[in-house]
Each structure stands twice: as C-alpha cells, then as structure tokens.
Design goal:
Rossmann fold, 9 strands, single chain, two-stranded antiparallel sheet, disordered C terminus, about 20% strand, globular
C-alpha cells in the first residue's frame, strides 16, 4: 500500500519522487520499479542509474526490461566499486532515472560525497529522479530514531531534500514485515535472530511507521523530530 504527496514543480528542475519506507523490507524498491515500468510502457524515457547491492532477484527482474546506464567504477583500497555515473546520466538525459538508496555514501574518489548530492546534480539538469530511502535517514529524525530503536544512523539526508520532493510512502503491516524477516526475505539467515531483537522489534517498527506516515501527511512537527 502506498500513500503519496506531491510538491509544486520548479521550472527547469527535474521532479524528484522519493519512495519512503519505515524499515528495510517494506517494498520501496519494488514499488519504485513498478512505477518505472508503467512509465516506460506509456512511452516515457526511463533508465536505471543505480540499484542497491542487496535487491532481491524478483525485484531486480522488474528492472530487466529497462535501459541501464553503466556505473562509474571507482578504485578504493585496491578494489573497484560501482557507483552512480552522474555525468553519464546527464549526457544520456532521459526523462526519468532510477536511483536506489538515496542516503548512500559514495566511495571516496568521486565528485560528490553523498548520493543525494549526485541526485541534486541530475535534478538541476532537468532530469526526473525516482529514488528510495527509509524514514530513519531523515537528518532531523536521527535522535528520535535512536530513542525508539537504539540505533545510531550514520547516513542521513537533509530535511530540505525530502521537503522538496514528491513523497510516496510505501507501507506494510508491521506483523507482515516481521514475517518477511523471519522467512529470510529481508536480512541474511544468519542475521535474523539479531535483527528481531534489535531494529526489527514491533514497538520500533510501529513508531517508525507512524513517523513515515506523518511525513506524507505533512505533520508540522515531523522535521523537528517531534514526538507527539
């Protein structure tokens, strides 16, 4: 189930649609790719710029029929890492580009430290972006997230990035999400026990779900980390 809020369009700037979840496993990337396929079927020019490393095979299959912009390979500590190639996307200049994991930190060596900064370059070039993130990565909510989960989130996205974007909240019942975790659909089998006793506790999920829905509802306290 998804709930949506749209923002006014800024002239000359691409539209940013963020598929927001309250936890890993709710289906953000799946819903983003479903919309991407629908747009492509309508004749819109849609390409894939970056998908998360741990996308499930059935979800990744949704992207198979879309054009992919080759990633930029960045050398770091003797290894190569695939990152979003911002310049290649801008040169290709599609109507929409799919960029998973907005809060991702780029490997050192690229032009931008954070993926949301790379996305901003693409938006300023007049290209629309479909992206994903979880509510715990909103910068002003990091203290609230620590209060309800005991987890310190290292990767955050500035509030103004979210405030300027169209938001599609991808929702799932917490009990269904916990069932997905137990089936091994969200974290590797050897991490299930720890996940269920740490981040994936039902009270934590309920609190984060309320916060995600409040983002979509435009609650006045949401970007101040309010708890009412």
């Amino acid at each position: 189930m998804a709930t949506e809020v749209t923002r006014p369009v800024t002239a000359g700037r691409g539209v940013h649609r963020v598929f927001l979840g309250y936890a890993p496993g709710v289906g953000k990337t799946f819903e983003m790719l479903v919309e991407s396929r629908l747009r492509a079927a309508r004749g819109e020019d849609v390409v894939v710029g970056a998908l998360g490393a741990h996308v499930r095979p059935d979800t990744k299959a949704l992207a198979a029929g879309l054009e992919h912009v080759a990633p930029q390979l960045v050398a770091y500590h003797g290894s190569e890492f695939a990152e979003l190639d911002t310049d290649a996307v801008i040169d290709r200049h599609p109507t929409w580009v799919v960029v998973d994991e907005l809060a991702h930190t780029n490997v050192p060596g690229g032009r931008q430290e954070k993926r949301w900064q790379s996305v901003d370059e693409i938006l300023r070039a007049g290209i629309g972006v479909l992206s994903t993130m979880n509510v715990q990565h909103i910068e002003s909510l990091k203290d609230y997230v620590y209060q309800v989960s005991g987890v310190r989130v290292a990767e955050t996205v500035p509030d103004e990035v979210i405030q300027a974007a169209d938001i599609v909240v991808v929702d799932a019942d917490p009990d269904e999400l916990l069932a997905r975790v137990r089936r091994g659909s969200v974290v590797p089998p050897d991490e299930i026990g720890q996940a269920l006793t740490h981040f994936f506790r039902k009270p934590t999920l309920v609190a984060l779900r309320e916060r995600a829905l409040a983002v979509c509802a435009g609650h006045p306290d949401i970007f101040a980390g309010g708890t009412d």
